[in-house]
Please model this.
Amino acid sequence: MNFPHTYLASGSPRRRELLTQIGVDFSVVKVDVDESQLLDEAALDYVRRVAIAKAQAGFQQLEVSPTNCIVLGADTSVIIDGEILGKPKDDGDSRRMLQLLSGRSHQVLTAVAGVTMNDTQCVISDNVVQFAELSADEINWYIATQEGIDKAGSYAVQGQAAIFIEQIIGSYSGIMGLPVRETAMLLKKISE
Model:
């Protein structure tokens, strides 16, 4: 597939790796968007709103003529018992999240938004991850790796936390933070 040059409004190395994997020529645009959840905001609405806000903020920062530009923004959330688990604040918050996920399945939503001069499109990747029952020692070990400190739900599916995962239903790349199939289709549609 031929993709247009794209701007990625994300500092995530995983999103950069996934775009590179599917052959997208892109540049990174740094954005600072308030990711606070609104009162009574559903998880699906939350990830969509934040992904679009990131893409729009990136589009506004372009220093080139934005006529033929596409900016991608993405947001990933882990949801269990109706609670959105964002990035942990500290080790205690990380422990709380891993204990919640232990032995249970949870939802991982990733929204990808594309913004151009004339259009805004958004796709959602909805996935389920089943965690094994985690012992206190396993949780302590994983927290000590610091791998999950900047990840939604306090874990990285592509990292050492893979040993905790019994089953995935959906898109592995979507759980990582950028569903490649949906992203490719979005880029194709929005550039037509």
User: Anything to note?
Assistant: The longest strand covers residues 120-131.
